[in-house]
Design goal:
With 387 residues, the chain is an alpha/beta fold. It has 15 helices and eight strands. Helix 4 packs across helix 5, helix 8 runs antiparallel to helix 9 and helix 14 crosses helix 15.
Length: 387
């Protein structure tokens, strides 16, 4: 197991009705809030009214930044920074999924930087301070509600880049699973695939010795495999939503990654898909993951895949390591299909292969430190096989 530093400072209020604690959380962090939200789902569900009434009732002034895009753009981040400065904002209040929370994190950091927010996205060293963040989560997927990352897109340069800094942990996160009842099956499935991918990236990286973390990862994966399809089928199943929500946080909040650091190749490859084609992150991962798993299956990795098959899918037949590994990969793909996700890039609307080389060139810088490092040619081949 590698050495690690462990601290997850985000305070979580989890469960039905926890929103009542929001005013107290906001007051502990600042005096004037910037509400940050997406394209309107919170208005349709009534959450916007609930939050704004609570803020008004408790005498908390606020301004608003709406229209945060899925795959949030740096232009929106810059807009948010300007608003914070004009309005004298000292606490950010994102309400939504990962895109909204990520956008708020980038605003929080770029607020303390004089130039373009994109500089900060590209260089974590420019993060010298950050406005405090209180998040209200409405979609179980990215884990942004309890992690240090924000992923921001630049439409002009076709780049999608992750930034990370401990200053970006939300101070508080309100996680009420009933807020995810309205998430449509497609986003539920994509979110579940994203959670699973966060676990896979760590589980298969080959860093030895983190036995305890790996057993926890298996439990988290089983939770996704069990509850993902249930939530797609019955959107108002509370336990399904609650378990997915809590798993989304624990998949990426740093705990299971303790002592097991390496690159995240599937994410590196998928972020190029979203950057070039604006596809849904989790769906892109669901398409790439089984292809990548087959691609890296070799004598070095076969035992990990067979263990995954035995411990997560309960494959206990004596049929040889490679057969168990291949069954496990096929069953992984089937989980995505059962939740209604398509399995090729073409079905996602990517109809040309002409950008694969350019995308692979960008992805490869984050694919070298892994049990099976990927070259640019490997990545192009994976895109081709996923096509
Ligand atoms: O914009 P609104 O109207 O709110 O609609 C959103 C959006 O269209 C909708 N939605 C959210 N909550 C809903 C809902 N619809 C109905 N009911 C609700 N309760 O869902 C759509 C997708 O939302 P988005 O926030 O984009 O989804 P997600 O949470 O999957 O976030 C994806 C973004 O996070 C990044 C991804 O790359 C992508 O940009 N990631 C962030 C990470 C992190 N911060 O640690 C790690 C991840 O690996 C990932 O890269
Ligand atoms: Zn992800």
């Amino acid at each position: 197991m590698q050495n690690f530093y462990y601290s997850i400072p985000t305070q979580v209020a989890f469960g039905k009705g926890q929103i009542e604690k929001l005013p107290e959380f906001v007051k502990k962090c600042g005096k004037k809030a910037l509400l940050v939200y997406g394209g309107g789902s919170i208005k349709r569900t009534g959450l916007y009214d609930e939050v704004t009434e609570l803020l008004k009732k408790n005498g908390i002034p606020f301004a608003e930044l709406s229209g945060v895009e899925p795959n949030p753009r740096v232009t929106t981040v810059n807009k948010g920074v300007a608003l914070c400065r004009e309005e004298g904002i000292d606490v950010l209040l994102p309400i939504g999924g990962g895109s909204t929370i990520d956008c708020a994190k980038a605003i929080a950091a770029a607020y303390y930087y004089e130039g373009d927010a994109w500089d900060v996205v590209l260089d974590d060293n420019l993060i010298i301070n950050a406005l405090p963040i209180v998040s209200v989560l409405t979609l179980a997927a990215t884990g942004s509600e309890m992690d240090v990352f924000a992923v921001i897109s630049n439409e002009e340069t076709k780049d999608k880049v992750g930034m990370g800094n401990p200053l970006l942990y939300p101070k508080y996160s309100v996680m009420d699973p009933t807020y995810t009842f309205s998430v449509p099956p497609y986003q539920t499935a994509s979110g579940t695939a994203d959670i699973m991918s966060h676990i896979f990236e760590l589980y298969f990286n080959g860093v030895p010795g983190a036995f305890m973390q790996e057993r926890i990862m298996e439990a988290l994966l089983k939770t996704c495999i069990h509850y993902g399809p249930i939530a797609c089928e019955n959107p108002e199943d509370y336990d399904a939503r609650a378990n997915l929500m809590w798993t989304s946080s624990w998949a990426i909040n740093g705990f299971i990654g303790c002592g097991k650091g390496a690159d995240w190749p599937c994410h590196a490859m998928e972020h190029q898909l979203s950057a070039y084609y604006d596809v849904t992150h989790g769906h892109g991962l669901a398409v790439l993951t089984p292809v990548w798993m087959e691609y890296i299956l070799n004598d070095k990795t076969v035992k990990m895949f067979a263990d995954y098959g035995r411990n997560v899918f309960g494959i206990h037949e004596d049929k040889g390591e490679y057969n168990i590994a291949r069954d496990a990969i096929a069953m992984t793909k089937q989980v995505f299909v059962d939740m209604g996700l398509t399995t090729t890039l073409r079905e996602m609307g990517i109809t040309e292969k002409d950008k694969f080389e350019e995308m692979a060139e960008k992805a490869v810088v984050e694919c070298g430190n892994y049990i099976v490092p990927l070259t640019k040619e490997d990545i192009i081949e994976i895109y081709n096989r996923a096509f």
